[in-house]
Amino acid sequence: MLVQKLSLSYEGNLPTWFATVLLFASAIVAASIAQRAPTFRRHWWGVAAVFAYASLDEAAELHEHLGGTFSTGGVLYFDWVIPAAVLLIALAVMFWPFVRALEPATRRKLIIAGCVYVGGAVIMELPLGWWTERAGPDTLGYALIDWVEETMELIGASLALLALVEHREAT
After folding, report:
1. Cα 116 from Cα 163, distance rounded (Å)
2. In which domain, by residue range, is 72 found?
3. Which residue from 28, 33, 167, 43 is spatially nearest to 95, judged by alpha carbons?
4. Global pTM?
5. What digits encode the pLDDT tens for the residues 62-73?
């Protein structure tokens, strides 16, 4: 019982709550930046919305319901990564001018945070899907890959919150 409440591999527990709060805190900080931003105000509100949605998704497992849309296997066993990748590419294209305009320290920190978070949330789903299809979810390999995935998400969210707070304090 204690393992389920503390494990990164389970949902609806303490780590899920912590991740949800980290993401929501990032949304709040981004919104406070948006309120004061002299330029790119809509982009800052967009950043706030992305973090708010990520927080909601973490709490309610919304992306889990996208699975089964495509008939895939192997690394695309968890096929929700397909629409997620398309969405991420669209967001990257839309936000690129904004990202380029950020001061270098903030830009670097947010890009690193985003890469770590997306690397965990989306990219690590690929080997996890491959492993799940071949060996199942109740194996040590699954647990290790899942641990890396969830840890990357927590680190990425933490780095993003830190970068946003530092940016807000500097402006």
Report:
1. 13
2. 2-170
3. 43
4. 0.92
5. 877 777 778 899
